[in-house]
């Protein structure tokens, strides 16, 4: 029994040693061939890792897959069913059953949105809390796009123009590059012109009005929009009888429709017409600041527009109307004058009557500019700021020497000179010219070795005659020196270690 225990202990120690040796070999990187491994040839390709994805890549692929499903609008079967419903609704529209077509298209739009929008998305979209057009960043839903367009067309055919504008705006917001853009902008332009009470045909324009919508062409089958009798602009009473007009603020809805045209279709055929119509409406209601901004926008962004000449002419008119008088800033006055001068240069084919009228208006603006400068003179006279009075008098004389106000400015300057003891007035002098005295030569210390070698001046500078003293000028500090400075060489330095007392 004793020998058996001894043998077992030796076997255990041998097992522990073998384990330690194997661990050491593994740590050093040495390993022998496995019994279950096979010999791999160097020419044999290894396993591919093309389909191996990390956690981030797997998450991104899953999100892309779900997003694609939303953008496709569901399965192909759902798309086919939606297209069948759309065709049936389109048949109602072709049969002029506009009310039934409106209900059918509205149902299709709601169903298509429910296929990819959750309740939370609809809630945030209704209250304006979420991001706009989150699911429409690529292609969107073609069935919803067509149904939304036909919904607006059905409402327009029923002359429910307010609802039609909302549907058109919804289409442009969800599908900014919709293929129905030309038709949408044309319909919105017709509604805006109707709400703003502009003529629906260019033949109805008078000589004082600008022809609008040169590119607005009626197509066969369009619903006629009669001018009718518009509600009074700015009325505080709601519109409860006329279904073709908004309940409140018809002018504001018209301007909103025009703004949607030149924002969503800036290069379209009606963009410059929408800007011109908006500017003319603001001119008509005497909102000169906004009219000036819109005319400027038209001139800068649409230089090839047929309304360019009118934009210059009416832009100068509203800019001049924004000028508040000689007591205020003259920027509007200068800008209006520049616009009229540009009009004379850009359009040499103007009639003699138009040219004479423009030249007369430019002369009136010159007179207004002279009055504005003279008003500055009077302003500083009241404040008692004499230098500013003299400054603006000189500005007036230099710019407009032959004007009536230039003679008044000269008289003011003469009075200022007489009050300045008969001398010419300089606003920067601040008093009489000081007399100049003779300079006393600086006495050098003869015991100072640094100055002992300097030659003394032969003669001192005589005192200037007081009678011949020149009048003080602003530029006296730039006068030429009387004589060149006498520069002397540096005296020799003492030897090293020597001390000078």
From TrEMBL:
Keywords: Signal. Pfam families: TPR_6. It comes from the Bacteria. Residues 1-27 form the signal peptide. Residues 423-501 are annotated as: Disordered. Residues 432-455 have a biased composition (Polar residues). Gene3D superfamilies: Tetratricopeptide repeat domain. Residues 461-483 have a biased composition (Basic and acidic residues). The keyword Signal applies. This is Outer membrane protein assembly factor BamD.
